[in-house]
Structures are given as C-alpha cells and as structure tokens.
Amino acid sequence: MTNIYLESHGVIAPGILSVEDIPKTTSRPASAHTVDWFEASRNARAARQRYWSDSARYAFAAAACCTTGPADRPERLAICLGTSVADYAARDDMDRTVLTDGGDALNAVSTPSFSANMAATRVAVALQARAFCSTFTSPFLSGFEALWFGIHAIRAGHADNVIAIATEEALPIDTGDDVLPGAVALRLANDESAWPCRRLATLCWGRAASPRDLGRRLLQGLGQFAVTASPTVIVIANAHDESAAPLVLALPRVLGTNVEVSTCTGPGALAPMLSALPALLSDAPILLVAVHERRFLAFVCGRF
What we know:
The chain is of the alpha/beta class. It is built from seven helices and ten strands. Helix 6 links the parallel strand 7 (232-238) and strand 8.
C-alpha cells in the first residue's frame, strides 16, 4: 500500500487566534464580510481576481501557505476542495438581483461564482495545478471527502501531490445558519523523503446501520495496519445531528476503549476540519472518524 504523507498545512480562519481556540470556536461572525485583507491579484495571475468569491480567496490563501515552490511539477499537482455552503451567498445575491432589478442586472463576470466548482477551479488555475481539480459538497463531511479522494488519487497514480481543502464563507446575515468561514489546506505527497512527516491512511467509509456495525467496520479496517500502540479514537460529529448521536455514544462500549468526541454546529465543512486538525497533526497513532447523519469516513493518522 502506497504511503501518503501530510507534508504541510495552511489555515485561514478569521476570529480564531490560536490552535487552542479551534475545537470550541464553531460559530460564524456576527455579519457577513468581505476578505479585504487578502488581495488575490497580488498572489495569482488569473484574470479578474476581484470577482472571486470569499470562499475561493480563503481556499487560495490557505493553499498558498502549503506549497513548496518551483520544485512542484504542475502536471502532477491536484486540487481537491470540499465545501458545503460556499456558493450560497453568490446564489442568494443573484436571486435578490433578479427579484429587484431583473435578469439584465446580473454581472456576467461574477455570476460564475454561483457554482461551487469555481472555487476549486480558481485555486487550480492560480497554482497551475494541472493534474485535476475536484469539488465535494456533502454537508459537514465534504472536507473529509476531499481528503479521502486526494489520498486515493495519489495511490492510483493520478497525482504526486494533492492539496485537499475545506473552505466556507460567511452566509447572508438573515439566513440564520451557523457556518464558520475560512479554509484549511492539507498538502499530501507519496514521496518517501517526506518521512518523518505524518502518515495518513483511509480506513473505511459508508453508512452505518448501528453502533455495532460501525465499531465492527472500524476494527476490521484497523487490522490492515501495523499500529504499534492502541490508537486514540477521535470522533468529529455535528452537535445537532440526532441520528449520529447513538453511534457516537455507543462507540466506547463497542470498541472497548476511550473515545474523544469533538462536536461542531452547522452544515459547514470548515469547523469539523478545524476540530480534526490537532489529530491530523499529532505524532501519536490516531483513529479519526467523522460522522454525520449515519454517514462516516474513518482515517488512521500519525507516525505508525
């Protein structure tokens, strides 16, 4: 099995001042805002950067933090981006424009941002990543899906390096939803010279019918790896997800070990990825499980 390593990472999260604040900071700012501290035109050669959405700016800023420079082979660099609601603000603005001023008032340059795919495309063009770019949009889990796909893309030989990104932007103030804006970017590689960088491996994924089913599949998957010590089990879940609560609460009994649970609110992809970041950056072997509405993705991470 090809070893995949986490080489570097970038975090752009307004309002979060330190890593210690990450697990407990899951609410968005009081109002929607623009990213005036970051000018894409100074960092990317793409045209019309001023029309980028905030989510694209966050994603590019985070990805730019974890690039390694001219040694990269653009044709072997890929972008995997996960976002749950990042195109909502653009579509909301389009709806309001059409309702108040008619379709002719739409801006032909900014209108493409209504598609969630545009953020990944912007980043890929700016970084000259030509292997491929993909977007994942599942509520809550899309950042983990981007990470999962990136790991398997490298294993399959489709890329040598992948930048997996979770990004969101602030929603219009009257939506009432709780979404944390910003981006996390994780740079993955299969280069053995990256050792002793942290190793990442996918364990299992799917839909769990019961706590026993989830525990059985986790234990079966864990048997594939030569983990020298019992891994710490960390579960990332949505605090308002009633369907996932029975799975999470029963895991300690099913697995026979302690389970640390980190909860986030809202459907956004950024908050759960921020909550998982300390585990992803840990040296100790960790079994990381992200759960939402009985769907789950499980990873093994650390130096093992």
